[in-house]
Amino acid sequence: MGNKTRYLAEKYEEMVERGEVWDLRTLETPTKPHVIVEGREVIMLASNNYLDLANDPRLREAATQAIERFGAGTGSDWSIAGYMEVQEELHEAIAEFKDTEAGLSYQTGFAVNAGLIPQLLEEGDVYISDQLNHGSIIDGMRLSRADTVVYDHSDMGDLEDRLREVHDEYNRMLIVTDGVFSMDGDIARLDEIHTLAEEYGAMMYVDDAHGEGVLGGGHGSPAEFGLEDDIDFQMGTFSKALGSFGGMLAGDQHVIDFAYNTSRTWLLSAGYPPAIAAANTKALEIVENEADRVERLWELREYFKRELESLGFDTGRSETPIIPVMVGDSKKAQALAARLFEEGIFALAIVYPMVPRGEARIRNQVNAGLTKEDLDEALRAYESAGSDLDII
Predict the structure, then answer these.
(1) For the chain, domain boundaries
(2) pTM of the model
(3) Residue 310 among the catalytic residues
(4) Domain 16-45+291-388 CATH (choose: 3.40.50.300, 3.90.1150.10, 1.20.1260.10, 3.40.50.10810)
(5) Which one of 91, 134, 194, 210 is the catalytic residue?
(6) Residue of 47, 129, 182, 221 marked active site
(7) What residues does 349 pair with on adjacent strands?
(8) Whether residue 167 lies in the annotated active site
(9) Rounded distance, CA 363 to CA 345, Å?
(10) Which of these, 31, 217, 230, 271, could form a disulfide with 54 (CB 3.0-4.6 Å)?
């Protein structure tokens, strides 16, 4: 029976040969600035935990209290078994945090994109998508009967050309973009995109998974550009800067009503535990009230990026606490990650299909809980390993 799947083993070996497989490591502590991975204490630069909230005692307490009150699980899909009071509180908190009429939580950020995007357009409509959008956006568009047109990454001239080309051919147009692009750390030019959307009558959908907690005083990329009232669909996640789990959607009330009545990922997946809902609500409250966390994050980001570049590393298009070290070759990127780990730094190689072949890199993600001394230690490791591997 196993011989029928032998071709998968062959494909996997080919991936190994190209250096395109993931080296999964076992984390033995909570996610925080210093962690123990497979018995070794290392500085964490591989986590999306930008604001150091994943192990915050207030999130833990909120989750524990919710378990005591509501139990461990939800019993079924939210649409079938209902959702608890703590979930309704979270929806209200999302709307307040995003400055919109209404909010909705999803099981994951991927579930928002894969579940909602296909429902927004139909045959005769068109998505206009940034070239480097997240895979969950791409999967969502593929599930739709609408067409998709791709514009060159953050190229406003090309976006306008695409809008001009499709304007008279389709009933509706929806521009879809990440707020912060997760592999390069650059920011979408939402102000210019919005201007073009208004000119050509297109809607806007922003995936702000890496913008929340980072931009707009922590409220995200639409807030960074003062566009909270102008983005038709604000998607986000609790699993990164907010330190917990799950996806979110913010928008007008009718958008939210439509979303939970049509998204298969929402309707046909079990709701996440009430403990998660409580932790998510607490995380929004903390970010709202502790602006210094975001300021600290940016101070560390500026320092680390500047010092990496002074050593001779290429940090690509980074404009946020996502700071890639561009390597190119997948095997060399993996060798660099292994060497960093040996020297006490946990930062993973990002290879195809996460990024195009020939663009492998180490993706560093700065955490507000780190110290400059931590970053100096990481810089020493980078200098030593980068020199030995002929990267600098």
Answers:
(1) 16-45+291-388, 57-289
(2) 0.94
(3) no
(4) 3.90.1150.10
(5) 210
(6) 182
(7) 362
(8) no
(9) 12
(10) 31
